[in-house]
């Protein structure tokens, strides 16, 4: 219980990857992404508090209307949603997984679609079976609270906190050279005043659909990349005139050596970011810097 009430960072899929050239060299993105220095943290989605009748689980798969474009590629978004409720019908947790479905018939697109089918399946299996998953803790907490209130008051109407939730949305799909990049944003709520945002980026070879790593696509060593990105962040911190960063922000950045794990692709280049609470308050959201593809050899 105590462990459940703690704020936890979402289990992001730190899948990376990425580059190459296409015949036409087109670039494009279907969803515009922010490239300002500080990006505001997404507000939590409203929690669905409707109770279920009998079953403790309910799964729905839906497709969003309309096709989207990323360079020469057309795709649409689908979402799988599942809820878990106690035996007495009280909603404990909701999970929503949004993912792209490419509409072409190339081998690369088919492989990417297979990747996301497996991603959804693996995520749902983890929610179901991992004793440390958000679902497991939510069910345990809600059941204990429900039983406690039933014993004390003979009712289960008033709960001390809303149901838990985890929501993955597609933030953008980018076509660059011989690459397709899919950027996810997530939001996890497990109690408290607010949840925590998360991000991850998947990069694929257009022709084969193989997932690639960013490290395999740039012409810099890890140390060289860390220096380049760190200097960009330090410049942002040093030029701040509003006191938007923690006093030890520069110290934190100088000690950081895994910038390559926190990135996503846009039309302009690779955006690297620090997470909320890392060098600035939660309300400041993500701090971002952009490195043009040319500087990375992409």
Automatic annotation (TrEMBL):
**Keyword Signal (UniProt):** yes
**Sorted UniProt keywords:** Signal
Tell me which positions the record assigns to the signal sequence: 1-23
Residue ranges constituting the DUF3298 domain according to the UniProt record: 252-294
Q: Which residues form the Deacetylase PdaC domain?
A: 92-196
Q: Is the keyword Signal assigned to this protein?
A: yes
Gene3D superfamilies in UniProt: Fervidobacterium nodosum Rt17-B1 like (3.30.565.40), Heat-shock cognate protein, ATPase (3.90.640.20)
> Which Pfam families does the entry link to?
DUF3298 (PF11738), PdaC (PF13739)
The annotated regions of Low complexity compositional bias extend over 45-61
Quote the protein name from its UniProt record: DUF3298 domain-containing protein
Q: State the species of origin.
A: Eisenbergiella tayi
């Amino acid at each position: 219980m105590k462990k459940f009430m703690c704020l936890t960072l979402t289990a992001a899929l730190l899948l990376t990857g990425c580059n190459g050239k296409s015949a036409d060299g087109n670039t494009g993105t279907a969803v515009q992404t922010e490239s300002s220095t500080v990006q505001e943290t997404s507000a939590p989605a409203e929690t669905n508090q409707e109770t279920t009748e009998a079953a403790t689980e309910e799964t729905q798969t839906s497709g969003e209307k309309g096709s989207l474009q990323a360079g020469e590629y057309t795709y649409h978004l689908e979402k799988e949603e599942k809820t878990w409720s106690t035996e007495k019908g009280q909603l404990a947790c909701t999970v929503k997984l949004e993912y792209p479905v490419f509409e072409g018939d190339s081998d690369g697109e088919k492989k990417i679609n297979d990747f996301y089918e497996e991603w959804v399946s693996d995520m749902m299996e983890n929610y179901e079976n991992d004793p440390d998953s958000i679902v497991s803790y939510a069910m345990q907490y809600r059941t204990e609270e429900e039983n406690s209130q039933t014993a004390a008051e003979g009712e289960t109407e008033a709960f001390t906190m809303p149901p838990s939730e985890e929501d993955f949305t597609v933030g953008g799909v980018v076509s660059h050279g011989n690459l397709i990049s899919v950027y996810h944003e997530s939001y996890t709520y497990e109690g408290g005043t607010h949840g925590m945002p998360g991000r991850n980026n998947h990069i694929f070879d257009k022709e084969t659909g193989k997932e690639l790593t960013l490290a395999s696509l740039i012409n810099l060593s890890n140390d060289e990349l860390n220096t380049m990105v760190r200097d960009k962040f330090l410049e942002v911190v040093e030029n701040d005139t509003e006191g938007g960063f923690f006093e030890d922000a520069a110290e934190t950045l100088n000690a950081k050596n895994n910038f390559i794990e926190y990135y996503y692709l846009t039309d302009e280049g690779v955006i690297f970011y620090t997470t909320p609470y890392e060098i600035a308050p939660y309300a400041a959201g993500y701090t971002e810097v952009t490195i043009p593809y040319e500087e990375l050899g992409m």
